Amino acid sequence: MPTRELLAPSQRAQFTDFTAPLDDRTLARFYTLSDTELELIRRRHRRGSTQLGFAVQFGYARLPGRVLRVGEEAHPQIVATLASQLGVDAAVFAAYVHGRDTTRREHQLELQRDFGFRSFSATIYRELAGWLMPIALSTDVGPVLVGAIIDELRERKVLAPALSTIERLAWETRRRAERLVFVRLTAALTDVQREQLDALLVVQPGARMTTLAALRQPPRRPTPATFVALAERLQTIRAIGLNADVARQVHQTRLVRLAREGARYSPQTGAFSDQIFGICQLLGFRYAPRIRDLADKRLHPFEKASAYPTLEPLIGDRVNVRQIESQWEELLRLATSIRQGTVTASLVLRKLASYPRQNGLAWGLREIGRIDRTLFTLDWLHSPELRRRVTVGLNKGKAKNALSRAVCFHRRGMVQDRTFDDQRLRAGGLNLVVAAIVLWNTVYLERAVETLRAGGTGEYRWGSDETRQPGQRRELRPARRRAHTGPPTGYRTKFPKRCRDPRYSSTDNVPAPPCRGSCAISWFPTGTPGRDSRRIVGRRAG
């Protein structure tokens, strides 16, 4: 089950920390007692500390909408304001803070009985879930949803529960709202329409981008041909037969967010890959990835495809040399900025990937990338050594990612921090732990290999109680090799299938045949075959 949290620690502190200075208007609005309230407090409570303590609880019930927590220091302005109205010394509040917990609980019941406040319950939980749904349909921002719940609780004179309960209520309502949005948008779609919409996210053979990305491209020039192309795009969309009234059932903010998410999923992945090739070439690096959809990629020569009859089925568009020449100065300036650290390569690539296709800089970088990708593809097809080295490097990266996933088990492996600083802190901690594990493996596995080469087993002595000095490594166990000359008297030998030697019978009482490595040998009592036979497992030396 996912962790039901919406707020980052800093956002959560905004709702729990009630120590900021209060203005005069707030003090007068929420912490001014009427004559009836003053008379009731004085009649019910005799001592000044109890009167002031109950008044503070009453003020906290108004704002921030909860009772004073055990161990929490009351706001000094609130204590002073209420003490002046009651005519008592504010210093007597310390006696209430260190008093009995029973008194606090009695005061909470008194707030509900005499002043109309209510405690939070399952019924109120369900009522607020229904009340919050219209807001969750318009926004999914966690602080907005949590703040709306707290304001509504105060409006209904319901004493707020723990913030985790409010956060869980907002999380569940937001999840139901997201499902309702998708149901409203897709309920009326037919199977044919669903297939047509899925096809918009597929890069068709010979195309550079998905159909959806192509439909989103703005026009280049105001020419008759451009107008015809726009009319064809409009006809493609209308041919799906979507009902425009469906969009009116979803809040405009939600539609804008979904459109942005869809745009992120449908960029031209091929062009982005070409831009990576291009930027690496300008920086003097060789980009050597394992291209997943290599069969769908095309080679881009300077000449026409007819100049390479053997490769003609694999050739796409020609490299646009004029575009490279027109953007050459800008491309060099871009590479210099990255090399000097003025801008990061990741930011540049994200910006270029979001640009429309006709952007000159993105287009020129893509053409350079096509040249380098074409050369890399030819090397990939020709060189098994290149394929092996790239695959080894990729496997190392996958192994590190697998280690990170195994180590990141806190909160079920999900990073739910909202702010960039918190996310960076959590990622930095994870990288530190992974780096420590990699360092440990590098040092001790190298030591284990050296021990194996010297004739040992390479097993670690985990139970060692010896004190090690700084820089000293953990010792390894000495070699414990034993060669079995045969089964005990009265037992027959059963060799593993992969080690079985045709020269020997499984019932022969003979030494084990040679084998690579160490394999398990089973000895069964002769004359008592079957599943219940006693088994002695030995370890044969390789």
Produce the secondary structure layout.
Elements (H helix, E strand, L loop, with lengths): L8 H8 L7 H7 L4 H10 L3 H15 L13 H11 L6 H5 L3 H14 L7 H17 L3 H14 L7 H24 L4 H9 L11 H5 L8 H17 L11 H14 L3 H15 L37 H6 L1 H12 L5 H10 L5 H23 L1 H24 L12 H34 L37 E4 L25 E6 L10 E4 L3
Helix pairs in contact: 4-5, 4-7, 8-9, 8-10, 9-10, 15-18, 15-19, 20-21
What do you see in this structure?
The chain has 542 residues and is an all-alpha fold. The chain folds into five domains: 31-114, no CATH class; 191-241 and 248-265, no CATH class; 276-382, no CATH class; 385-456; 481-542, no CATH class. It has helices at 9-16, 24-30, 35-44, 48-62, 76-86, 93-97, 101-114, 122-138, 142-155, 163-186, 191-199, 211-215, 224-240, 252-265, 269-283, 321-326, 328-339, 345-354, 360-382, 384-407, 420-453, and strands at residues 491-494, 520-525, 536-539. It has a three-stranded antiparallel sheet, with no helix packed on it.
Short synopsis of the structure:
This protein has 542 residues and is mainly alpha-helical. 54% of the residues lie in helices and 3% in strands.
Q: Give the helix/strand class.
A: mainly alpha
Helicity level = 40-55%
- The CA-CA distance between the termini, in Å, is 48 Å
Radius of gyration from the alpha-carbon trace, in angstroms: 37 Å
pLDDT averaged residue by residue: 79
Strand order of the main beta sheet, please? 1-2-3
How many extended strands?
3
Strand and helix order: HHHHHHHHHHHHHHHHHHHHHEEE
In percent terms, what proportion of residues is strand? under 5%
Low-confidence region ranges: 478-485, 493-542
- Major sheet summary line: 3 strands, antiparallel
Overall tally of structural domains: 5
**Number of helices in the DSSP assignment:** 21
